[in-house]
Write a structure and sequence with these properties.
177 residues, alpha+beta, 4-stranded mixed β-sheet, 8 helices, 4 strands, elongated
């Protein structure tokens, strides 16, 4: 949703500025955890319950987090709760992650493979892909047996599809034309 992205952007940018001034990797982990907690259906229900005070919502949210929290993180959660924006945390987390990747010159790579890949195979594949895409990649591997064989890689809006399914589709289009 464009509206959520527009509303979440200033929060993500402000949080990123604070994180850059401190410990960026620790903040990144914390933001990811906060986004996961905020996306949970029970937390969403609590945040939208009119019978629960803002302080109760903030205290409960902070109690659920496993990561140690500093004053800035507590203030951030308190401000989001006060403004009724806790539901934005998943989008804030995504935008924060994009800003972090841009800062580091990196990108997320979604790798879909027809078969499970060993750590060595993933490392070799990522090394090759980093040369092709010209940046450091943070891989996440998913097994998708519908590919039949090969891999499909998505980096941002770029797709590299070397799967058997894609080759069969290309042959089908060529033969049907």
């Amino acid at each position: 949703m464009a509206e959520l992205a527009t509303i979440a952007r200033p929060y993500a940018e402000a949080l990123f500025r604070v994180a850059k001034a401190g410990n960026l990797p620790a903040w990144s982990d914390l933001v990811s955890e906060m986004a996961q907690v905020a996306a949970h259906p029970d937390v969403k229900a609590l945040a939208h319950n009119p019978n629960v005070t803002d302080q109760q919502i903030a205290d409960t949210f902070l109690a659920v987090l496993k990561s140690p929290l500093n004053a800035e993180a507590k203030n951030f959660i308190g401000m989001l709760v006060e403004n009724g924006r806790v539901s934005l945390l998943p989008e804030i987390g995504e935008q924060f992650h994009v800003l972090k990747n841009a800062q580091e010159g990196a990108a997320d790579a979604e790798i879909f493979s027809a078969f499970p890949l060993s750590d060595a195979q993933v490392k070799e594949l990522v090394s090759t892909l980093e040369k092709k895409f010209g940046r450091k990649l943070n891989p996440s591997v998913t097994v998708d047996s519908s590919l039949i064989g090969g891999v499909r890689v998505v980096v941002g809006d770029e797709v590299l599809d070397t799967s058997v399914r894609a080759k069969l589709q290309q042959m089908h289009v060529a033969l049907a034309a």
